[in-house]
Amino acid sequence: MYGRYTQDLGTFAKDEAARLRLQQEQGDDGTPRPRRPSELLEYSQGRCAPCCGCAVRCQRFFIARVGEDWVFLILLGLVMALVSWAMDFAIATCLQAQKWMYGGLDTNVLLQYLAWVTYPTVLITFSAGFTQILAPQAVGSGIPEMKTILRGVVLKEYLTLKTFVAKVIGLTCALGSGMPLGKEGPFVHIASMCAALLSRFLSFFGGIYENEARNTEMLAAACAVGVGCCFAAPIGGVLFSIEVTSTFFAVRNYWRGFFAATFSAFIFRVLAVWIKDEETITALFKTRFRLDFPFDLQELPAFAVIGIASGFGGALFVYLNRKIVQFMRRQKTINRFLMKKRLLFPALVTLLISTLTFPPGFGQFMAGQLTQKDTLVTLFDNQTWSKQEPSDEFEYIGILEAWRHPRSNVFVTLIVFILMKFWMSALATTIPVPCGAFMPVFVIGAAFGRLVGESMAAWFPDGIHTDSNKYRIVPGGYAVVGAAALSGAVTHTVSTAVIVFELTGQISHILPVMIAVILANAVAQSLQPSLYDSIIRIKKLPYLPELGWGHHEKYNVRVEDIMVRDVPYVSLNCKYRDLQHVLHSTKMKSLALVDSAESMILLGSIERAQVGALLGHQLHPQRRLQALRQKARASTEDGHRLSEASVCFQVSTEASSFAPVRGGSRKPLKPALKRVPSVPTNSPP
């Protein structure tokens, strides 16, 4: 049926195009239309004729070339790189202001606590309020919505300028507060909105961007740009966007994603060099692990343990995040109270997390004064923190000082950090602000890997290499493996391995990273859906997620087993009575439109409200009176006088009829609704 429909539609399109072409070539009287004079003739005379003609040709060339894909992708990459750099600059300024306030009040601990708690609470509250007022669609990650949109479902107000502004400003304030939130997921949404807005702008130059299929292809490329400019990882960004947003990916979009993501990541890193933050283009979290002997083969079981444990940890994170949201929704009293006081929940959560991370308080046991970027830099450090010999004492210099506590060792600090950040991140990602969960999970995984690496270094001080050469264990490599494994388990992706390679600038641990990521995915996919599929289920978006393990028997369910067979439909040749019968016999919001009752070729659908509005527009009392007046006027012009009493009509819910009354039967005028047409009883309706 689908093949026949597409064949008929293609034939109709060709015939219609030929007809329109012939109509344009001929005038109204059928004679060939004379060819229009060239627009360049007006520039053929005069002193500046060559310059004017060249300018017109350049204008035509520019307008034609703006429709090219590469121009659109360059603009998209450039805009997203500028947005990413500006947001990073604003976020760093906010975090530096918090440190400045905290450091300037070192004489009074109470004032330090007030400054440490009040600053993020104000920023989170402003972000929640601003987003709620301007565009509530900007709340959350944005990847679940993009998965739904790329499936063909139209979500209103998700790709508008208003949502773009709310997402950018809300995300900047949320990340500037220092809460355990991420920017990767929202950046996918921001890039998609930027692509949609650019398509609308460039549709002025060429109508190709009004094509829905082309817009979908550009949205797929924009998802790659969002990850690429966020981490300066174009290859991992493209692969991650494919894994996260698409179950089916067109290969023709492959080069678009790589081109735009590479250009965006290049501009993003060039801006860092331009403002003197970096000397040259390097990785964001550059590591310096040894390359001659990065790890021993006997360490592979430890890396496998990291992958398996990360799989269980990722499933637990998704489960905990979903249970927190469901608890808030099921408690009617709490839900009703928070609906009235929308800003109270984010303020309370921020107050709780800020209190626990206060550096002179409990935060001293979990490196509470470090930002997420500083935490990753310290966790990827290639030196060993734990004592390998009694005489050894690692010097904590700079930001590494946050991991040292006089009354506990580094193992206690890492364990407390992992446990506290785990539930804090799961709770913080439920705040109604623009935020993601990738970076918090990435940091937690790095801390877990660092814990395993430090334990291995303590158990094997000289390494486990059996030859005469001694190669000590590098805990930073374990941190890289743990970060990739846990983030891959939460998102159900394998491309996090490529992302960590581009983030660290080293590929020496490619084998351990791949082993850990694959094992983590195998464990997590058998226990829980991905974080984005879980959010889709919570928000009840129209999306069909992949079936997990243990549900393979559902793949044998056919569509005919669950579909409704007696579907109300409207055909092209149906009558008014048929339309009324369909409207009265069903309550479905949409009606199927078919070619005919015999062929049953689906042409589309029409909403029930539209059918009712069209019928009301065509068949209402004023329209009938207008038709009567036109008919009477036409009869008068022909010389036939039509008496007012010679026409009567009846208003019914199912049918309307106009019947002339015989000339001899003149009766007193009665209300129109009570008069009956004087037609023979044996005449057909």
Secondary-structure topology with pairs:
Elements: H1 2-25, H2 49-66, H3 69-104, H4 109-134, H5 143-150, H6 161-176, H7 184-202, H8 212-231, H9 234-245, H10 254-274, H11 300-330, H12 332-340, H13 344-356, H14 372-379, H15 410-428, H16 438-459, H17 475-491, H18 496-504, H19 510-527, H20 531-539, H21 559-562, E1 569-571, H22 576-585, E2 590-594, E3 602-607, H23 608-618, H24 621-637, E4 647-650, E5 657-660
Parallel strand pairs: 1-2
Antiparallel strand pairs: 2-3, 4-5
GO molecular function, one term: voltage-gated chloride channel activity
Biased composition (Basic residues): 664-673
Region (Disordered): 657-685
Please provide a written account of the structure.
With 685 residues, this protein is mainly alpha-helical. The protein folds into 3 domains: 61-274, Orthogonal Bundle (Clc chloride channel); 297-387 and 400-539, Orthogonal Bundle (Clc chloride channel); 567-619, CBS-domain. It contains 24 helices and 5 strands. A 3-stranded mixed β-sheet has the order 1-2-3. It has a two-stranded antiparallel ribbon with strand order 4-5. α3 packs across α7 (184-202) and α4 (109-134) packs antiparallel against α13 (344-356).
- Biggest beta sheet summary: 3 strands, mixed
Shape: elongated
CATH architecture of the largest domain: Orthogonal Bundle
CATH topology of the largest domain: Clc chloride channel
Range of helix content: 55-70%
Per CATH, the class of the largest domain reads Mainly Alpha
Head-to-tail CA distance between termini: 37 Å
Proportion of beta-strand residues: under 5%
Please tally the β strands and state the result.
5
Question: Can you list the strand order of the major beta sheet?
Answer: 1-2-3
Count of distinct structural domains = 3
- In round numbers, the mean pLDDT is 79
Number of helices: 24
Structural class category: mainly alpha
H-E order: HHHHHHHHHHHHHHHHHHHHHEHEEHHEE
Rounded to an integer, what's the Rg over CA atoms?
Answer: 34 Å
- Low-pLDDT runs of 5+ residues are 1-5, 35-43, 640-681
Biased composition (Basic residues): 664-673
Membrane topology: Multi-pass membrane protein
Main location: membrane
Subcellular location: Membrane
